[in-house]
């Protein structure tokens, strides 16, 4: 059993090291590196990535992320090696540092922090949050307050002893678990979280909706797999595409559901669907999101520009003779999809490794 697992790990390592070193122009080092890895696996059933392997592996994993339209910038990922940390306090400090570093006063840097990988199939570090920065959601007698997406996790935090203010935009705490210990929660220091109030370039009444969103989309619940090693805590961020906020987070019926409010500000009748009031409200809300981020000096990309960038990525991959994979259903933007080239093409949705994977929630 152990022998078979070791064999599989070695085969994954061999596939990764060969690709990685070839891409980095270090083919002549493949043999000696594989010998060292083989020795390490025989002795300890593990091997340890060099920083260079970790860095390039994380970048390859982004490049292989079928659902991501932002992959042109895969090689610009900033990789922070946090594998030497073991206590929740240390991890929390590293996560706060990640937020400040990546936020960079609004000039967002795509960044990943990589913590200790799984050992013998068990997590050594696990972050319970879906994103490090996220708003709480509460079920009350008068309906849901805040982000409905966060209701279950908010309950988990409350059971641990956390108490939110009860506003629509309460920042959730970070919940960290290390090797078999119970989880610990940490409030986010307010001063490191950049948020943007939503205003409209020409409709002043828009501000009265009191909408806002945070600057940094920082996914913290996915598992990074590189060469057979599983990094269960590897939180990463890019910058937002406007539609993620304007056409989903603030607009979805099961999220903040703001289209009726926006229609009211616009003076639109919501009586008949055929007036396309939803579509009108959606476009103005998305204009407001892009305008607000621009005005606050926070990186953001509109979906047309993002699609052009993705087209460049497609061309670049072809030139490098790498097969492109993609998930059409995620790559098309939720506003005006057919105005982008993506809509008129099909993509191969094979999963290639290294990659970022969903993993089971640590709470039910
Ligand atoms: N769609 C998610 C959200 O609205 C964020 C996913 C990652 N997005 C990104 N631009 N890197 O919060």
Write a short abstract of this structure.
With 364 residues, this protein is of the alpha+beta class.
Describe the structure.
The structure is a single chain. The chain is an alpha+beta fold. Helices cover 36% and strands 15% of the residues. The strands form 6 sheets. Strands 1-2-13-10 form a 4-stranded mixed sheet, with helices on both faces. The chain has a 3-stranded antiparallel sheet with strand order 3-6-7, with helices on one face. Helix 7 crosses helix 8 (277-296). The two termini are 31 Å apart. The model has no long low-confidence stretch (mean pLDDT 98). Arginine binds at residues 131, 217, 219, 238, 240-241, 244, 249.
Averaging pLDDT over every residue, what do you get? 98
Fraction of helical residues: 25-40%
N-to-C SSE string, H for helix and E for strand: HHHEHEEEEHEEEEEEEEEHHHEHHE
Widest β-sheet, arrangement of strands: 1-2-13-10
Structural class by SSE content: alpha+beta
How many helices? 10
Beta-strand share of residues: 5-15%
Task: Based on the model shown, name its key terms.
binds arginine, 364 residues, globular, 10 helices, three-stranded antiparallel β-sheet
Secondary structure elements and pairings:
Blueprint: H1 2-23, H2 30-44, H3 51-63, E1 78-81, H4 88-103, E2 111-114, E3 125-127, E4 137-140, E5 143-146, H5 151-159, E6 174-178, E7 184-186, E8 195-197, E9 212-214, E10 218-219, E11 222-226, E12 229-231, E13 236-237, E14 240-241, H6 242-249, H7 259-266, H8 277-296, E15 300-301, H9 303-319, H10 328-331, E16 355-358
Parallel strand pairs: 1-2, 14-15
Antiparallel strand pairs: 2-13, 3-6, 4-5, 6-7, 8-9, 10-13, 11-12, 11-16
Helix pairs in contact: 1-2, 1-3, 6-8, 7-8
The site of arginine has 8 residues, from strand 14 and helix 6.
């Amino acid at each position: 059993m152990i022998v078979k697992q070791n064999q599989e790990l070695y085969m994954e390592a061999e596939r990764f090291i060969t690709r990685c070193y070839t891409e980095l122009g270090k083919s002549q080092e493949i043999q000696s590196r594989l010998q060292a890895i083989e020795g390490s696996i025989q002795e300890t059933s593990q091997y340890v990535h060099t920083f260079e392997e970790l860095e390039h592996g994380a970048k390859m994993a982004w490049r292989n992320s079928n659902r991501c339209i932002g992959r042109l910038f895969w090689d610009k990922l900033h990789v922070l090696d946090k594998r030497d940390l073991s206590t929740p306090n240390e991890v929390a400090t590293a996560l706060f540092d990640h937020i400040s570093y990546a936020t960079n006063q609004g000039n967002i840097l795509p960044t990943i922090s990589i913590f200790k990988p799984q050992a013998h199939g068990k997590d050594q570090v696990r972050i319970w949050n879906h994103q490090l920065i996220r708003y709480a959601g509460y079920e009350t007698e008068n309906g849901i307050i805040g982000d409905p997406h966060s209701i279950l996790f908010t309950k988990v935090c409350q059971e641990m002893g956390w108490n939110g203010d009860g506003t629509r935009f309460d920042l959730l705490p970070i919940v960290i678990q290390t090797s078999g210990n119970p989880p610990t929660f940490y409030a986010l220091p307010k001063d490191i979280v950049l948020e943007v109030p939503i205003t409209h370039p020409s409709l002043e009444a828009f501000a009265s909706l009191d909408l806002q969103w945070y600057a940094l989309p920082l996914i913290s619940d996915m598992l990074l797999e590189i060469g057979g090693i599983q990094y269960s805590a590897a939180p990463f961020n890019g910058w937002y595409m406007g539609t993620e906020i304007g056409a989903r987070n603030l607009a979805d019926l099961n999220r903040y559901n703001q289209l009726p409010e926006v229609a009211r500000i616009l003076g639109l009748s919501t009586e008949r669907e055929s007036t396309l009031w939803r579509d009108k409200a959606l476009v103005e809300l998305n204009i407001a999101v892009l305008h607000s981020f621009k005005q606050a000096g926070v990186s953001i990309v509109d979906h047309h520009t993002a699609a052009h960038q993705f087209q460049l990525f497609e061309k670049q991959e072809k030139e490098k003779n790498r097969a492109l994979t993609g998930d059409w259903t995620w790559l098309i933007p939720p506003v005006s999809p057919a105005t982008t080239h993506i809509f008129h093409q099909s993509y191969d949705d094979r999963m290639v490794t290294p990659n970022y994977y969903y993993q089971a929630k640590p709470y039910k």
